[in-house]
Sequence to fold (314 residues):
Amino acid sequence: MSFSSNVKKELCAFENQARHCDIAEIAGLINACGTLFFGADGPSVSVRTENAAVAKKYFKLIKRVFKAKCELTVTRARNFRKNRIYRVATYSEGGADKLLMAVGLFENGQLKKRVNHTAIKSDCCKRAYLRGAFISGGSLVNPEKSYHLEFINSDGEVAAAVADMLRFLGLNGKITLRKNHSVVYLKEGENIVDLLNMLGAHISLMDLENVRIVKDMRNNVNRIVNCEAANIFKTANASARQTEDIKFIAETKGVDFLPKRLGEVAAARLKSPEASLKEIGAMLNPSIGKSGVNHRLRKISQIADSIRGRHLND
Ligand SMILES: [Zn+2]
Fold:
């Protein structure tokens, strides 16, 4: 089972503490994967999903809250995967008007396609709405690969409301367009952990944290290795430049041109191109420190540069 379906399974088993939260969760579900229809005898609503646990959850919620009558149909998708598609429909005689009015999608005899702000007023209800929206229209990439959680909506206004709710809860939700859909996504691992916590997916959250710890450790090791590699590269580069300067001075001005204290360092550098500044300092008699060596090598480079400058001016 994928990480995403594990999270959904856990969230489907989560029970709200209050009726207002149940209503908010139903609103989230219908906004994400519901279809509204207005027929001769009134409104009807059907929720369509490939996830059996989600169908069951929605069925249970609307039974419990509205005692609505539902019709469940199972068909096979026409695509090559031939997944099962579950459809839970409530018609007007089954109580669809009452249900849709409560979630704010049916008002003054008309269907609305928006998020009802009264249904998501409290924090608890915002979380419940997002839970409904995630289980029916969301997904989560395996955290081993990358941190990405998204809510897919066909309606831009609903997507904007989802992003607002995430922002309200302190999470950095962004919106992008993909084909005919608006996608609200979270990218940072910490944001995803926070959301799973707020939605009540505590087991998945611990699994995700474990992955994060291992990944962080791996990154730290990589960073240290890269840093060491960069230092070695830097030393090699500097050494090549110094060697070039020393050889240039010897060729243009003769091997004895440099004063003794600089000549000693130059000789040590030529002898050991891979030595660090500290190692060069130790080769001298009397030995000197790293900064002393650095100072002398810089002096040598300045001398080389001034000779080059004079050559250019000649
Ligand atoms: Zn609530």
